[in-house]
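User: Assemble these into one structure.

Assistant: Restating your components, then the assembled model:
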Amino acid sequence: MDHEELKRAIKQILVEELDLRGTEPAEIADDATLFGAGLGLDSLDALQLALAIEERFGVRLPEGEAARPVFASVAALAREVERLRSG
Amino acid sequence: MTSSRQRVAVTGVGIVSALGGTAPETFARLCAGEHGFGPVTLFDVSAQRCQLAAEVKSDAALAPEASTDGWSRTDRMALAAAREALAHAGIDRPDPDLAVAVGGTTAGMLEAEGLLAGQTQLSPELAAERLLSYPLSTPLDRVRTALGAEGPHATACSACSSGANAIGLGASWVENGRASRALVGGADALCRLTFAGFDALGVMSPEPCRPFDAARRGLTLGEGAAFLLLESAAVAAARGARVLSWLDGWSLGAEAHHITHPEPSGACGARLITRAMARARLDPRELTWVNAHGTATLQNDAAEARALAVALGPELARVFVSSCKGQIGHTLGASGAIEAALTVLAVEQGKVPPTVGLETPDLELGLRHVVGRAMPLPIRAALSLSFGFGGAGTVLAFSERAREGVPAKPTTGPSRVRAALALATPPSEPLVDRLDAPRSRRFDRASALVTLCASAVLERAGGSPGEVGLVAGSAFGNVDRTVAFLRRFFERGPRFASPADFPHLLPSAPAGNASIYLGLTGPVLATADLATSAEAALCIALALLEDDRVDALLAGSAEPHDAVSERLLSPLHRPSDAASEPRGEGAAFVLLSRTGSRSDPSVVFWSDCARPDELPVPEGRARAFGFGGAEAFVRASSWRDVPLEQPSFVGVPREAWGGFALVRAVEALSSDAADQTLVVSPRGPHAFAFVFERRATGP
């Protein structure tokens, strides 16, 4: 899966797992802020997202403070998944 | 039934906890600073982050009598604690007028979860029998039957404030003369679903929990049950009962903020503390101790400390604040009841229990603690605080001595129905599409039904009449979602339990979700009573309105279609029942208040344990509605000459028919097709009965 496909897959997970009804995956910008003001997601969504990404890509994302930069955007998530998969 | 308000005395308590099978045992070990944590033995938790809990070990409390075979762990602990409270109060004979309210969140989940997920193979008959422990109403039914109690009754679920909510409701019954004696409390056994759910949320501490500690890392689960026997001051005095403590104040409300996160300013908690104290006519200077919710999560302890700071001001520096959860764990729906019972004993014995697990206090909380073991100190007044998922909170105020003066009687008129609506829908209809998408994420069909119906009722009433609460009934609750969560748990492993779905599985989730969506900040709770869940919800709302401290309440039921319990329970149905139940979903709600206009139908009679001779004589053009055994009830009453209408609500689950009949009875008045209407739903030896009336308005 190349970088673009990975980002598309993460957007699909966002919409399905976080029940973002009315949002098309393609509408989510790669660098859009996901939590707080951006898409309006919260820490409960972060837990669900981490679990879905672990299930789908077999990588465990960091928790706590270290998770902040990783969950900043789709692009950041994709970079972290690639890093963990290659490591 | 008395007409004046009564003071509420606590004359007995019973407790089952990890510290012991009785109240004296639990309280003594609590005061000694012991804890009841150990490795979980009830089920396998080896794949989970947290592997600790406070399990009940008392054989006597887990088998209160020989005839409890087939009862759930929750049922058995409930009966043991209920019996102890009665014995403690010196009541050794069955009292048919006894009122009972039970709070809880999981009932027989521990016994049913393997079956629901398709993991446990049983014969259809055995499976159906085991599933009888599953409905939230079963602990109440079993306790009432075992005790021969036929008075007012309620199951209350508001997540982790359920037990306290049941106590507040029972206190309203006693204060307003609905009951002179009420056995009220809560019970919750540990189960895989709650253990995996809290683990998935990452809020469970890997070590025994440390409330209010700077290094606190979350909660530790526990289980148990507790009951308080409440009696009116007059009844307690007449039999020379020893009063342990007085329940002088209580308040129920909701934050309308988030399904799991407490609102950080603590504003709702502060409002409830202030109200409970005002009702008890307590000044903050008279308060000695606060038995806090104190779950040891970062968020709860911080929000609770802020609520106390706002409500008590500078007095907070003097008042002691403890949490029992470092010893008995977080017992969820039972916690408010266990902690209330412990508060009663602390007031009676003049001992302030410690906070165990607390080593380095979080100075930002600004609380005064007792550490190590209990501190001897006369307790003039104490609060017990409970807060739950969905934002529902309850505050109970106990005093050492009865306050001077008699509580004021309500001055407003009868409860009125401001608006009513029934909503029937096929299960294929995408209900959530009718709601604002970002605010209804993860709503299941029950949450969508409650929100849509309640919203439409408020709209009909022309908006919110002040602070509105919500009592939402459902026979089985949210079975399909629970099954999906459990299947994933068993098939993929506990690590993959969905954190975001878990809080939506609680029976109170539809009420909580609707309260957040609609901004409802009054009492918000769920109830269950099989096919009379709407009637039960209406009775709870009317009892809370008699309190005269709630502006308005939405009450009714929502019954989503669920294939799993329908299939599992099918051996219990007669074939004719199955044929008369076309698949569909339904919700029916009414808005009740004490401040409606004279043209709004008024409630002239209501009871959840009515006898035929109690009904008021019909006046004007009267119509009667009911099902099943209602015919015999009506014929034995002064309504015998009024023909009983038994409407069929095609496409609506049978469990929802009571709510639909209530709405029809109100609409008959609104459309001037009657002057008085009666709805009767037989339940056990008595019946739910409601008489509504609409007087023609003058020119």
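The longest helix of chain A spans residues 3-17.
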